[in-house]
Each structure stands twice: as C-alpha cells, then as structure tokens.
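Re: the 427-residue chain
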Amino acid sequence: MTVPLYDPEPPTSLARIIPSDVTLRFDDSADQQPQIILEIKAKEVAAELQSDSHLPKITYRFNATDVKHGAEETLSASHLKTTFSPVETPQFIRQTQNLPTPEWSSGDQAHPVEPAVVLGFMPLENGWAQLPVPNLTEQIYLDSESNQEPEVDREPQTQSHTDPPIALVQGALSLGNDRHAVLSHYANEQPWSLTITDADALQGTWTLTIEGSSLKLTAISLELQNPAVILNGFFWLSTGQPRLQDALPDLDNWVAGLRSIPLKTVSPQDVFPSVMLLEWPELTLQVRADAAMPSAALKPWQFSYTIDPDNLKELTDKKVLPKNIFRNELPSTLPLIWQRHPYLPMIQALPLTQNQLPANYPSASRQLVPYELDAISTESPRPQEWRFAVTSNQGLRSGRTVLEKLSRLKLGRKLLICPSCRFQYQG
C-alpha cells in the first residue's frame, strides 16, 4: 500500500511504503492496447551494489493477461542469507539434551569453549542431519567483546511527527499457510511464514490497460532490494535427546517432537554476530489459483548450511572457538548425515539391542548409517556444499533430501558409537 507524502496519519494496514518518486505516463504503442504506466521508487541503492548479481532481493510479479489460466501471482526471494539466534538456538539444544552451560574466561590463559559445538538434529526424508551449532552464550559474547552495540539512527527527541519514517517499510508483510483454516485444507504441508519487515530500496510498476471507458489492472512488478526477512517453518530441529541405543533422537513424540527455529536475514547491526548461515539461492511463493482456501504455496526450495568466515575468524582469534571446529576428532561432535545405505541392508551390532526393552525389539533406526560431511581443508576447516532441499510442493511432509553433492560421502571414520554389519552378495 502506498500513501501520499503529506499523509501524517499512522498506517492502518499491516505494512505500507511511502514512495520518494512517482511517475505516471501514457503508452499508446501501435502493437498493443493503450496503457497507463505507474512507476514508483522508494530510496535508492548505492550504485556499486546495483550491479551486484548476488544482492539479496524480493521480486513480486502479477500478470492478468493469461486468459486461459487466469492471473498469475508470484513472490520470489533470491540470494537471502539468514541465520538463527546464535544465543537462543544453542540454549534450546542444551536444554533438550540436558547439557551444561559453557563457560569461558578471557585473558592470556583463554581456552576455546568445550565442547565447541552442540549438535542439532534436523529431520531428513530418510534419516537425520546431525548439524553443528557453536556452543555460545550471551555472556561469552560479552566477555569476549564479540558483540555489537545496537545502532540508533535518530535520537527520539529530534524526530518530529512530520518527518518520514526511518524504515522503508512501516509495519510488516507476512505471507504463509500458518493459519488454521489454511492448514486444515493442506494437511501435507508444514506451517510456515515469510515476513518482510524492511528493505533498502523499492521500485515498482503498475500497468493498467484502457478498455473502452474503464481501466483494467494487467500487470504489477515490484522489487525490494536487500530486504529484511524473517522465516518460520523452514528449519526444524528435534526436541528429543539422542538415545543410548543408537545415538539418535526419535519421533515417538509426534506432537512436539520437532520445533521450528526462526531464521532472520543477516544484518551488519546484529548485536550477536552469528557464525552459521543458511543461504537460499531462491525461495518462490505462488498464489493457489484454484484453491478452496486462497493462500500462498511454496515451490521446491533448497538452502546451504555454511558459515560467515569473518565472524568465525574473530571468535577463533579470540580463542573462543577452536580452528578445527568442523573437524573435531571426537565422534560425538562430528557433523554427520544418518541415512539408509542406497544398496546394502544393515544390521545393528547386538550390544546396542541389549539396551532396549525388550532386548530383541528392533530399533526403528537400525538401517541408518552415519556418513561424514565434507569440510574444506584449510587452516580453519569449514562446510563444503552442505545443501538440503525439498523437491516437491508438499513441503517438509514429503521429506527433506540431501542434494547430490552430499550423497557422495565417505562412511564415518572410526564411529564406534554405532557399530553395524552389512550383507551383500554377488549377482
């Protein structure tokens, strides 16, 4: 929604944008019907950033010219870099797994946090991803002086009611399927939402076609550059504790066995800079054209689990984290993929089954084999193409898969936590 620059009233909608430039022009090209073109702009992105092909952006498209299939309406986010809370997420994992809160002391005798990571278990289509999360606390950030003071753009006493707002977006725009009325129609989807809270710049075009004495809206094109986004329902971790039988959590608690971890786009003003990043090459939503309950539908999507090298270097230089954080020799802190072997059936070793009641009851995860995730071999090893994807329109209910580059993993080295044997025969 847009309003005139002189409107002093607070917004009455969930989100609104005050444009800085509005242009209205008439187009009567010979090869099409006469049109009225409305163009708006709000703020400007620096010239050196406009040519950056990897600049995060959100693009909205509306096209009503397709008579056969009706109007098409999509919203695509590209090159988003998001992260979870580097304080609340490890705290959640420690609480669910009954782990102690880490301590760290500064000075010449400083030693890296032990353990340096806690492991979050993300469900996959046929197993689990055992992902490392730096074992940090708010106190560790403060003691190591790795936090940032929140910036204040303008002193409150100097801001008058007639001044334009500091943020480009007033309010927030949230799209998703997390309303109960929508989820009841699409039971195969997980609840999710994408919320836009701000952006660095916006430009858009409305196209109205003249049909007789009336105007018909035929197209809209909007682009938000470097948006601030919050994602819910895309990154889920187990609320269970790894069991003695197989070193994995289970989903016996099918009501609350998983929790959605909120994600937000990375900002230079983050108070606690995060080491881990989730990068999204493209995330597309599309309006369900023939739906009984109008809502946004997720197209297939993927993300990479990686790091911010600058934030990691700062914490390793201060001896808060070790340089081999992703290549620890301890099996209990290795990043692993637990999934079925594509060709060979597996059987757990007998001692593991003796921990179960009854002892002859087979474990639900007996076919899962640990595969070690690859890391780039440098002075400070880091994740190499840890990519995960949902390849259907059914959301996470259809499963999350490890992409092909991760399928060529070597069997975990010396993983004595889960011995097993396998059967194979020729022919």
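Residues 154-161, 404-409, 411-417, 423-427 have pLDDT under 50 and may be disordered.
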